[in-house]
Amino acid sequence: MFEPITIKDIAKALGLSTSTVSRALRGGYEISAETKKLVLEYAEKINYHPNPIALSLKERRSHSIGVVVCEVANNYFSQAINGIESIAYNRGYHVIITQTHESYDREVVNVQHMASRSVDGLLVSLSSETQDLSHLKYLHDKGLPIVFFDRVAAEIETHKVVANNYKGAFDATEHLIQSGIRKIGHLTSSWYLSITIERLEGYKAALAKHNIPFNADYLQHCDHGGMIQDEVENAVKHLINLPDKPEAIFVAGDRLSTGCLIALKKLGVKVPLDIAIAGFTNSDFAELFSPPLTTVRQPAFKIGQIATEMLIQLIESKYPVTEFETKMLDTELFIRESSEFGVPIVQ
């Protein structure tokens, strides 16, 4: 079993008291320069590092941040985590990453585990199953700093960082309409997620602007956000088998976008000859899809950075913070061949 080197070991080896060694390592003024030099050189020689658990107990700080996301493999979240780490490590914080896999139960367990490990704060993006927020409200009320990003909780008053989901959805839907398409399906995640609500509003607003009535048959929710491929395939089948089927699908999620393309390929539906596609995804390979995918891209890295800066401000504030803000960053629409309805793919 691994046993780290302690101050006691150094004291024993050098014939000093543990308090003298401790003060020498901290650079205490009451310790002679000769003793300090002796202790520091020996500590370096044996590769001594202070015990982070002991330090955290003493300082009542662990210098660690907990991150809750649905899936690290999700392009958006992998980029957001890179942003989180770029700030956290430069500020002396370790990052502990957990995945919910879109499960409420796993989210509760992950959050409770990190709180029990005395993280200094949490960065949270809610799972697609999460409606009950009591596990987060309890910790927030107890004073644990929490910042939400991407999928946020309206009822918990704290800092939040989001993309402009409404505008991203509006832009993608309007692009499809301006391409001559009027029958546009919408494939999205669970109805209570903040991103689902905002993107649905943007989709509906674009339809309304161009005098296209909203068709409830064209709206399909995947409650597990694309994590269960059968669920995505059933939703896509529903749209494709409608008597008055859509000419395009606007997809409101990263994993849902790739899941939708897989489902259409299995069904023998050609994109964009038979149906056009535009979707939210941060995949770096959207241009390499066949056909290249028209996408709404979010500034995930920057969102991660800003959320981390806001959380560290909460952690390090000497006074209770009572004023909070929601920062919204713009999305960007990249138009590619997948949204050119009726056009065959040129191989």
Automatic annotation (TrEMBL):
Gene3D superfamilies: 3.40.50.2300, lambda repressor-like DNA-binding domains (1.10.260.40). Pfam families: LacI, Peripla_BP_3. Residues 5-59 form the HTH lacI-type domain. InterPro entries: Cro/C1-type_HTH, HTH_CRP, HTH_LacI, LacI/GalR-like_sensor, Lambda_DNA-bd_dom_sf, Peripla_BP_I, RNA_pol_sigma_54. It comes from the Bacteria. SMART domains: HTH_LACI. Residues 1-44 form the HTH crp-type domain. It comes from Mucilaginibacter gracilis. Keywords: DNA-binding, Transcription, Transcription regulation. GO terms for molecular function: DNA-binding transcription activator activity; sigma factor activity; transcription cis-regulatory region binding. The lineage of its organism: Bacteria, Pseudomonadati, Bacteroidota, Sphingobacteriia, Sphingobacteriales. This is LacI family transcriptional regulator. Residues 5-49 form the HTH cro/C1-type domain.
